[in-house]
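Quick illustration, no need to memorize.
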Amino acid sequence: MNKHFHHLIPCFVLFSLVACGGSPPPATPTASPTPTVVPTAFSTPTAIPTTFSTPTTSLINSPLSQSVTLTSYLFSSGNSPEYTITAQTPALTGSNDPRVIKFNHEMYALVQGLMNEFSVNLKDLPADPMLTKSFQDISFKLVSPPGNIYSLKFGIMVYVEGAAHPNTYSRTVTYDLEKGEDVILAQLFLPGVDYLSPISEYCLSQLNASPIGPALYAEGAQPTLENYRNWNISADGLVVTFDAYQVAAYAAGPQIVTIPYTALAGIIDPNRPLSIYLQ
């Protein structure tokens, strides 16, 4: 069972949820469709253009981000008697450029995967028709300022009827639209440099000085890729999100540390996205 559900295990023995199939929405939606069933597997959207229009002369030398708009479409499963799912999926509209199509595919697959995960983790539990308040809610926000970098943070809340409280966790994605590829944390820094240690040291210092300091789970902020899987680029610094239970008890909630770029100036790659914040 997925780690995001392990805090709900004592309550799971009473419940069962099942998933059903569905068709994906367009990759570059123009409206906000509301499907009524939960897809159980990702399949390539069929409404994606296979040919790409040639940009006008005025746009050829312009950043692609100037011709697209970040929007979202809503998924809402209101017909299931066992549970409800609501989910926002980000999508770029305004261009059929392959880099836009790639972004939309990736966002669709990510959200579908989260919904499938919810269904799979609950489908084998004993059925109880009286327990109908379980839910999953997926939302997102754009953390990065306007430009070619789209740094998104997804918030996922899951509740299983009878549990003491919902479980929440995060997923982050940073996409370079001009390059048409995801950005990984290591790419922000000089090749071969130890970037995790200074990031960890800064975060630990901030967490120790915060109200959770006396009860800090320090192992959750040690310099490992797993501990720093949730990060975003913002105008103010590198934003690190520690999910509930990672560095503190659930009651303390998720912990967020923003590392000023000046604190990382010596290791930031001048040819990568963070360099613009040091100018």
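Confidence is low (pLDDT under 50) at residues 6-59.
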